[in-house]
């Protein structure tokens, strides 16, 4: 630069000074152009309304895809449940999730084919029952051994004596239904020979008054099998009661009814004749119903063996219930029927 002349150096300085404003002007022109271009865009944006965003269209999923997704979710839930049980339950309490049916919900949880395999790690049901019986017997034997001195002292002070009175057997049937009328029903069954009846006339009157409540044998299917001797020689009487709300009240009512029957049979001034016999037709009908319409051929009662009479079109009506005049008329009609045959 020192070799240049003074005139050359001044010309170079003038050229440099002229070049600087040229770049500034260029920068200013670019800024102005950019601002002028942005302004119309802003005006255009403010004038034109932007449309709302349209919701994205849902992708249509086929039934197979949904079923596959459901199975995958179910498998994931089973896996999480299995992990939770492994961390919180004992090994004997954990379920087996390896079977293929574990992926799907159980429709029948009591299905014997879906039970886990028995590993003989605990007693069976029969084993538990046997253990319970052994425990009960052990507790009774321990109580008897501990209370032996007290029991011996009690036996020496008050020896056991057989009761002189009659033994009453009471059976109770619980239906576990308090609303059922049969739950409160009471039935009294007593042998006629054990009742305080005074003489043969009272015994005959009692059978007539009892009606269908009296049977020669034990009530039920054995009611026609009369015992030759013993307690059931005179048959049994059965009285049932279900009128009242409690079983105790019904039992008291049936017992009172039996006492009234005994008192009426022992009444010497009873209007019933002494020669009146019991009517056995109800037993014939019950035997016919039990045998499907066929009468029982093994009847051992003399009253059922004889050929029943017909009185006024009624078969088996007792002749003893009629007046002497009507008895003669019925016997005459029976004789005519026998001669025709």
TrEMBL record:
Ranges of residues in domain Small ribosomal subunit protein mS35 mitochondrial conserved: 165-291
Region (Disordered), start-end ranges: 1-97
Superkingdom in the source lineage: Eukaryota
Annotated Low complexity bias: 1-20, 30-40
Biased composition regions of type Basic and acidic residues, renumbered to the chain: 41-50, 57-93
Recorded GO CC terms: mitochondrial small ribosomal subunit
Pfam families: MRP-S28
Protein name per Swiss-Prot or TrEMBL: Small ribosomal subunit protein mS35 mitochondrial conserved domain-containing protein
Protein species of origin: Trichosporon asahii var. asahii (strain ATCC 90039 / CBS 2479 / JCM 2466 / KCTC 7840 / NBRC 103889/ NCYC 2677 / UAMH 7654)
Lineage, highest ranks first: Eukaryota, Fungi, Dikarya, Basidiomycota, Agaricomycotina
